[in-house]
From TrEMBL:
InterPro entries reported for this sequence: FAD-dep_OxRdtase_2_FAD-bd (IPR003953), FAD/NAD-bd_sf (IPR036188), Fum_R/Succ_DH_flav-like_C_sf (IPR037099), Fum_Rdtase/Succ_DH_flav-like_C (IPR015939), SdhA/FrdA/AprA (IPR030664), Succ_DH/fumarate_Rdtase_cat_sf (IPR027477)
PANTHER family, sorted: SUCCINATE DEHYDROGENASE 2 FLAVOPROTEIN SUBUNIT, SUCCINATE DEHYDROGENASE [UBIQUINONE] FLAVOPROTEIN SUBUNIT, MITOCHONDRIAL
Organism of provenance: Azospirillum oryzae
Pfam family, one: FAD_binding_2
Example GO molecular function: oxidoreductase activity
SUPFAM superfamilies: FAD/NAD(P)-binding domain, Succinate dehydrogenase/fumarate reductase flavoprotein C-terminal domain
Domain Fumarate reductase/succinate dehydrogenase flavoprotein-like C-terminal: 464-562
Cofactor: FAD
Keywords: Flavoprotein, Oxidoreductase, Plasmid
Protein name (Swiss-Prot/TrEMBL): FAD-binding protein
Keyword Flavoprotein (UniProt): yes
Source lineage: Bacteria, Pseudomonadati, Pseudomonadota, Alphaproteobacteria, Rhodospirillales
Limits of the FAD-dependent oxidoreductase 2 FAD-binding domain: 14-407
Keyword Transcription regulation part of the UniProt annotation: no
Gene3D superfamilies reported in the protein's UniProt record: FAD/NAD(P)-binding domain (3.50.50.60), Fumarate reductase/succinate dehydrogenase flavoprotein-like, C-terminal domain (1.20.58.100), Succinate dehydrogenase/fumarate reductase flavoprotein, catalytic domain (3.90.700.10)
């Protein structure tokens, strides 16, 4: 084994959970409640990172049947979800999601989450996109934060040790191929930590850091996706991700349908109301705004708004931060208060005036719909003993999904993964760390002196983010995707070999390596799907092609390359 300039510590536990968002924290809590000794490892301090904590919109909520209309039930929830993603999502996982979600809502209530009410005897429920009934429940625009706050308090009370900020570096596997723990890096102490455990739950989130404009936290750089791919796990539906209009400066906030029914005035940097010039005959600006949904979808006329914003920015007529201008100055104050109370409150708390300010709104990445494939209802991956949850996981989100399902998935499969990990830990003895030496040798190489000096990490990251923002959001084409692929492959070439990192640059260097690899996988999936389907808009293939593309792409490592097969559920 090569000599490292930093120390290596060993921590032995039953279950390691990596991630600090809603799904990961729920997994840690459930594993602890099942009797396991649990360590929670998070790249950002607990309660400060991830999509669940930072996700915010007028209607952010969790979907679960049984709290409103008597005609709604888990079977209807299942049917709604399957209708939105049939052929791309695992029916068994969807059934578990629909059946378990009400119980996870009750768990949150017991933890102290106070869901919004519509009077003393009823909850305030939202009918989200693709939902037959109103079933989505929220907490006054801060639903995700309320979830993580309540769960974090409880898991701390139960003695779960939290190591943060600590970054996942690699999986550690035994000679039989099963997971045997993880290797992580504590940048504040400049030490590597080898967590020995027979069960690992990964909830590392998405790859928000791959885009110039995104609505969560940039520490999500596709770490879990890249590391799982390098270890041979299967990944699915990588070409499907969600994005749409969002306030991008000086703060970030999604603009949901509620904002658009107010008919904001939309202009480019030159003061021109540009949307009419992008609309086909017979389609009005008011119709587009009334139909607007988040995320972007090609299934209705609201697509023209996202396309118009992206094209104006690409043409150089965007605002200083890469958007266009929205104004609600012509809207009556009482209507603003009635239609977007949560958004208005959120803005006031940050010194913004909905009525009088002009806002920069751009196209922002929200989340991945694909990820590491869950093979069963306990969220186990194709690597034995490795469970995947939250935005990292794939199998229940395809081209479309009902609003409220994302938070439900995190709670349902976070709980199941944590409980299953605890059962595995109780029945399994962790084997020798067969792959640890290889991981440490790779780090020694990354930390070795490089004659040409350390690569320009900031510049490389910026080039990747520009390429992904321009070519991998609203409008995709073979030509544009090839440009982006060339950019990420050039970035990979600059990072290959001895990186010349130092203990201070190890975390950003490894993060960038993961970001580049995850971006290439997403771009390849987008390039492979030569059709338009929901949010995947190929301008060079504008029609949906069920004859050739009804099914999800499954990606696995094949030597130094990636192999793909099609799976239709």
């Amino acid at each position: 084994m090569a000599t490292l300039p930093i120390g290596v510590e060993r921590v032995k536990t039953d279950v390691v959970v990596v991630g600090g968002g809603g799904a990961a924290s729920r997994a840690a809590l459930s594993a602890r409640q099942a009797g396991a000794d649990v360590r929670l490892v998070a790249k950002a301090p607990l309660k400060s990172g991830g999509s669940t904590v930072h996700g915010a919109s007028e209607i952010m909520s969790m979907g679960a049947a049984g709290f409103g209309d008597g005609r709604d039930n888990p079977t209807v929830h299942y049917d709604d979800t399957m209708r939105a993603g049939r052929g791309f999502i695992d029916p068994e996982l969807v059934r578990v999601l629909a059946e378990d979600a009400p119980g996870r809502i009750r768990d949150l209530m017991e933890l102290g989450v106070r869901f919004d009410r519509a009077g003393a005897d009823a909850y305030k429920l939202i009918r989200s996109d693709f939902g037959s009934y109103a079933r989505a429940m929220g907490v006054s625009g801060k639903t995700g934060h309320a979830f993580v706050q309540a769960i974090a308090e409880r898991l701390t009370e139960l003695g779960v040790v939290v190591d943060a900020p600590v970054m996942l570096v690699d999986l550690v596997r035994g000679a039989d191929g099963a997971v045997a723990g993880v290797l992580a890096y504590d940048p504040s102490r400049r030490v590597l930590i080898h967590y020995e455990a027979p069960a690992v739950v990964l909830g590392t989130g998405g790859m928000h850091g791959a885009f110039e404009r995104q609505v969560s936290t940039a520490e999500m750089t596709g770490d879990g996706q890249a590391i799982c791919f390098r270890h041979g796990a299967e990944l699915v539906n990588l070409e499907f991700h969600q994005f749409g209009p969002a306030l991008i400066h000086p703060y970030v906030q999604l603009f949901s349908k509620s904002c658009f029914v107010l008919h904001p005035r939309i202009t480019n940097a030159e003061g021109v109301e540009f949307l009419p010039s992008y609309l086909p005959d017979g389609v009005t600006v008011e119709e587009v705004q009334d139909e607007k949904v988040f995320p972007f979808t090609t299934t209705n006329v609201s697509r023209h708004l996202d396309i118009a914003i992206a094209r104006e920015v690409d043409a150089g007529r965007g605002t200083p931060h890469g958007g266009v201008y929205f104004s609600f100055a012509h809207v009556a104050p009482d209507r603003i208060a009635a239609v977007i109370p949560n958004t208005a409150r959120w803005m006031r708390q940050r010194g913004l005036d909905v009525q009088n300010d002009r806002f920069e709104v751009g196209i922002a990445f929200q989340c991945m719909n694909g990820g590491v494939r869950m093979t069963n209802a306990d969220a186990e991956s194709t690597i034995p003993g490795l469970y995947v949850v939250g935005e990292l996981a794939g199998g229940v989100r395809g081209p479309d999904r009902p609003g409220g399902n994302s938070l439900a998935e995190g709670q349902v499969f976070g709980h199941r993964a944590g409980a299953a990990a605890a059962r595995r830990a109780a029945a399994t003895t962790v084997g020798p760390a067969a792959t640890l030496t290889e991981s440490l040798d790779g780090l020694a190489q990354a930390l070795a002196t490089r004659p040409s000096g350390m690569p320009d990490l900031v510049g490389i990251e910026a080039s990747v983010r520009r390429a992904m923002q321009r070519h991998c959001l609203v409008e995709k084409s073979a030509e544009g995707l090839d440009v982006a692929l060339a950019t990420v492959r050039e970035a990979q070439a600059e990072l290959d070999g001895a990186l010349g990192l130092t203990p201070d640059t190890l975390l950003p260097g490894l993060s960038l390596r993961n970001l580049v690899q995850s971006s290439e996988l997403v771009l390849r999936a987008c390039r492979q799907r030569a059709e338009t389907r929901s949010g995947h808009y190929r301008v060079d293939h504008p029609e949906t092609d069920d004859a050739h593309y009804l099914g999800c792409f499954v990606w696995t490592r094949d030597g130094d390359a990636a192999a793909m097969r099609t799976l239709t559920y």
